[in-house]
Design brief:
16 helices, about 30% helix, Rossmann fold, homotrimer, 6-stranded mixed sheet
Chain lengths: ~475, ~475, ~475
């Protein structure tokens, strides 16, 4: 396997072996930094940051300069032709014809996917809204690996804004991929989004339990936990983790405590910032005196605000500045690999904690749209050319995962493109919860997010829907 | 002829031969891109963008990096000392002492001329307000040349915002220079400015006709045309293009259809954006099925908004992404030529479609100012040191062309610095439309844009003006 | 002495010998500019500009490029994670782990000191609020040196906004260090700040006199003077400059006239810009006809607004564009020296005009804070980790100089950490003007900026303060 010409949009784009291979290359590069100058001579990296950034942008640009390459840079959305209403697909095509690799940060979720689809050159996602930030995860894992020698089967606590924190989402998937146990503890109202939980338990081999389901009142614990994700050490344990083993699990030490700031810039207008701050978890000297943190790596993606006290900076367990430092060699390794100026040798694939699932894809381009207002596919400038696209990840209830932002959609109506064909009187639509959902072949399935949409495509209400219309007032879609 | 140390402010700064020579160098450079790295080693390009840009700025910067040079960059007007009230002439002198070449984009028309006047190093205009954008024109012509093998005598349609589109103005001059036929079709209220029309017909050998003057109602045509510019194929045909040949002209195919977006950022507060959008020309699949577009290159300077449908992207006639791609080699050729790190060999001059006219220059620095509110010479910070300067392009009526923005001014009063000398009682000013305008020698001519201005310089009303004052109420200047 | 790995935060960080050594290196570099390419090959400079700049940023970046190094750049505070509430100390640590040298401009006074404290790599102050701008001073002195062959013992006039002008402050210290005579002339309300005056007379060997104290009404003078700083040519003259010698001083010519613009962006909301502009000194042709300016170098740090007329540009005495030009070699010399890629040979130290004073340092981190609202140590995001720190520069009255912004604080109360120990009833605080201020040993001194603060730390009012409380209404602190 080679990484040449590939893109890194989500952390899923890399196998465990590829991640480990990048770490080896990063080790080699940081051991001989001066010799790397020239590895990317004559190459041009486009550094496109449409959201504020210091660390990530400067670390990517430093990485390219240390490799002897050149950088073209956008550091302010308002200074670009996106301000003139240009779509990011057009921008991607054009910049893709100038540069050799693109690094993109954008507030819209799924934006990096669109850029990767259109640029024609390798694209690296440096953060797309609240969705993912896979290179931060590489820095995080690399730091754990350097300090603990392995990243397999560790016990990691993720604290803070689990809802909006894109670094959290990417890291959680990566940890699951390496068979970790994850303790989730959010500020109130900042829990892990449903689509992330769902993905954790359907794409990886672990099991997610609400903490109170395991330990009751949580008595005797230092701090509340929302949930715990446990990877069984052997596949056959999968359905069979006794609650008692979780109890034991909670009593042993934590390998790393990863805390994030409240992502103020992603709050919705109805969120009350002051309330969200009030019971926000804080890491300070006192907390780190607890026995279970005795050997814990204290991690943070930075920037921090108040959730990580300055008094901890001198503590040898504090890793957050090391995480930042390691951003340069890890990104050097990544850039050189994608450009193909350095080959990484990837060991035989072995991803025991990843479930292979081949979800059917739904991309008819009509009938249903993503409901996430931050999704790139729903923006006015982008909807002109991006066709909605989904994976069908569940039928009970019918659940679509947006191909761009990965949020889930539960559309209420379905129909078939086939078995009514030619018989107009049979062209009917049904509730998505009805028996039809599973009886219609995937390639014939039509999905609608409203009755109006279904009817606009020439379908009439099916039997039960019609009846319900007569009953006048029952709720749609789930009970036919 | 060498391009070394010269500037490119308007497309007129390059002869046909020089343009063709740049294209040859661009061909050579794109065929051996890797070998160009080092051509500008140790050189520094200042990339000064005081208006939003992605494409143009990144393409210039990529070009410099591909040549192995370095870039210093301003991507936001608010982040510079212009925000402290500095004049662009001072800025130009200072940056000119740092860098080896300056690329400047600025909202004021004529700004690039000022920078070129003061920088002391080669300056490239990357767009000055609604005035010109000559390197976009080079990309456009280069694309046409690559696809059609020639840029001489083609038939090109220019559609969209002809009023504010600086790429349109530069391109129209360039096409005229190469003997093209140009079909103009604007959105309503977005016609070609008068000063551009005037320049087209006085500086080049072609003739501009309103379309309805040629074909009557335009019946049978696919789309309305504002005007058509025709270059006679032989000079002696100049005054003698029969209407019937234009009729024929309209029936044959178009070589290239060049459409631009509505330049929202240049609208005046009284412009109604919604109205301007309503009948804006749109290029889509349906349009391109028409016979006359069968072999037409579809061109656009990008960014696009709604005037060019995405459905056309896959059409082999679509050239707009190729235009963008070619921006890099064309700009590499230009930068290397101006810096003198590559010599271009320019064939013997032959510009048969350009009229040599030597207009008298008026630069007394008083009496009359440019009336274009976007002109650099009228800005408060610049008026401290820029003297108004004009070419006298016509006497009936007296017409001055601003040396900076090229807009036309029609000042109402004149006087002479000579023949009243010493005889104060004879120091009189006259209407610009009077016989005196042609009787006063150019070197003695004084021009005033108001009676107050004339009187402030010690002149009294001439006979007819005085009489008119008595008549009390006639309109000034045209009827003495 | 070597400059390698050192920082330049204030002009005091360089000895006279080091400054002269940098000038020699700059001479050498500008004589062989092409040979310098490669001197910093593989090095990365972070150029962090959190305030508008053209000249300084582009000149630093050009300098690094001319040395063959790379640049990572921030040109807009809003585009960085400081916008997310990050402290500059965190930012400094992170960027310090990416780059090899940092250049920082920031609106907070003392910000460069904080960056230098945390970055772990050489830091260059490119302007911190109204505090200092030492590299501008290097350009200024370098220009004087090139034109006058020496920078020792010259007579220099500093005009304009002496209050907010950071270039003025750095230059005044440097001139004092080289034994200059300085004529100060400010716009009304824009006089030199007290802390700068105090520093001039306590850290250097000269004497500062108000002009009217010297010459009475100033009759016969061309222009008003606020004050004059005179360095005696021999140390024993120190206390003994007769007024008559000053009179003579004023009649001879000025070596350089340095004028600055009104620093609008630093005015407080109560400043009336219009009033400040009204009697602002202006340098124009007429002024320069005066005999005392016959051989005067006309200098300005640029950008200028109205205080320096364009008509002077062509005058051979005008140096301001030369100052700008020389910014590149001087900054090349500085960067290469701090990075250690070029060694400068520094002659034996000889700073005859600098007084060695070893002020006691006060850094308990409580009791008293800097009162300058622009000081970095008082900003919300920074106060989390920066401990207030002061030099005790005077006891009558008690005067602290902030270690960050150098503004002076006059705290009203003191106590001792020692001689009350164990005897709670004796734990008293006193007025800072009382006899106790000098009786308490420096290492035991506690300082409070309010009674509340003193009482919060467990102290009770001393005898006189208590009495005054009974007298109810006398003013605090100075009369115990």
């Amino acid at each position: 396997m080679t990484l040449t010409k590939r893109s890194l949009v989500t952390i899923d784009d890399l196998s465990n072996g590829e991640i480990e291979a990048l770490f080896s290359l990063a080790d080699e590069m940081s051991d001989s930094m001066d010799e790397q100058f020239g590895v990317c001579r004559g190459k041009v990296m486009a550094s496109l940051f449409f959201e504020p950034s210091t660390r990530t942008r400067l670390s990517f640009e430093t990485a390219m300069h240390r490799l002897g390459g050149s950088v073209i840079s956008v550091a302010d959305a308002r200074a670009t032709s996106l301000a003139k209403g240009e779509s990011i697909a057009d921008m991607a095509r054009v910049v893709g014809s100038y540069a050799d690799v693109i690094v993109i940060r954008h507030p819209w979720e799924g934006a990096a996917r669109v850029v990767a689809d259109y640029a024609g050159i390798p694209v690296i996602n440096a953060g797309d809204g609240g969705h993912e930030h896979p290179t931060q995860t590489l820095c995080d894992l690399y730091t754990i690996k350097k300090e603990r020698q392995t990243i397999k089967g560790l016990k990691i606590a993720l604290w803070g804004d689990l809802k909006h924190g894109r670094t959290i989402h990417s890291l959680a998937y990566a940890l699951a991929k390496f068979g970790a146990t994850i303790h989730f503890r959010s500020g109130p109202g900042l829990e892990l989004p449903d689509y992330v939980k769902k993905k954790l338990t359907t794409e990886y081999t672990g099991r997610l339990e609400r903490y109170d389901a395991v330990t009751g009142t949580g008595k005797g614990r230092l701090f509340p936990l929302d949930a715990i994700y446990i990877t069984p050490s052997e596949p056959h344990q999968l359905a069979n983790i006794p609650a008692v083993s979780m109890q034991i699990e909670l009593k042993t030490g934590i390998d790393a405590l990863y805390v994030t700031r409240l992502q103020r810039e992603r709050l919705s207008p109805t969120d009350k910032e002051q309330e969200l701050k009030e019971n926000y978890p804080v890491v300070d000297k006192k907390l780190l005196k607890e026995k279970e943190f005795e050997r814990t790596l204290v991690m943070h993606p930075l920037p921090r605000v108040d959730e990580l006290a300055y008094e901890v900076d001198a503590d040898p367990r504090s890793m957050y500045f090391k995480q930042a430092v390691r951003g340069v060699p890890i990104r050097m390794a990544l850039i050189a690999s994608l450009l193909g100026t350095r080959e990484v040798s990837v060991p035989e694939e072995d991803n025991p904690f990843v479930r292979k699932v081949d979800y059917p894809v739904y991309r008819r381009g009509f009938g249903v749209r993503c409901t996430n207002p931050g999704c790139v596919s729903t923006q006015e400038s982008e909807a002109r050319y991006i066709k909605p696209e989904f994976k069908i990840v569940d039928y009970r209830p019918l659940t679509l995962r947006c191909a761009y932002c990965e949020h889930e959609v539960h559309p209420p109506y379905i129909a078939s493109s086939d078995w009514h064909e030619g018989k107009l009187e049979n062209k009917k639509y049904h509730g998505a919860g009805s028996q039809w959902a599973r009886r219609i072949k995937a390639e014939n399935l039509l999905i609608f997010d409203s009755e109006a949409e279904a009817e606009a495509h020439g379908f009439k209400p099916g039997h039960y829907i019609g009846q319900r219309h007569q009953d006048n007032g029952k709720k749609a879609g789930q009970r036919e």
